[in-house]
Amino acid sequence: MKRRSHLVLIVVLGVAITAAAFLALRPRELVYQGRSFRAWLADLDAKSNEQRERAKEALHQIGSNAVPALMNIMRTKDSTLKRIVAKWVNGQSVIPLHITTDVQWKLKAWPGCQIIGSALIPKLTEYLNNGESAKEAAELLYFVEMRAPESISVLGNALTNRDSRVRLAAVGALRPRASRRIRGNLCISGYGRWSAGLDGEKAFRRFKHGRRLQVWAQ
What we know:
10 helices, 4-stranded mixed beta sheet, 218 residues
């Protein structure tokens, strides 16, 4: 019995050390008032209303400086080992430890983007127009839209970019808006037909996987 208890203890300690290593090896990121950007994001889900409000104020103050940290969150993909360890650690109650997965961080980034709002758009536009970072930037602009609908215009303009990676990233971000209207700025009717008229963009057409996308100003 004692041998079994020792074995369990060794396994638990091993997992705890592995989890701590994952946290320690994570790239250094933006710090505001002594706390990491991710810590402020996590506080948006706090039980205390006061804690949530402090987090919102901190994100407002961080503003566009949050863009690199947000891009890092969107680029991060957990290894198979980390997913296994996270599933085990988050499912046990012996050690008071929780590992936030890459998917969970992306979900936390969504309200963070909405809180910061339009301050993110200029820097995200720069990242969007760079093919290497277009996909992540387009996804973040999609997150921003609920607070700053002008991000739709940025994505619409990207559909005419000469870089195919930028065009495809914009298409991917706009697709979830299919068959619905957002504050009168975007209407998509049917698969492959898009209408964007926030800033009265000129009519243009682009292709993806052999399907024609028609975009015109309303």
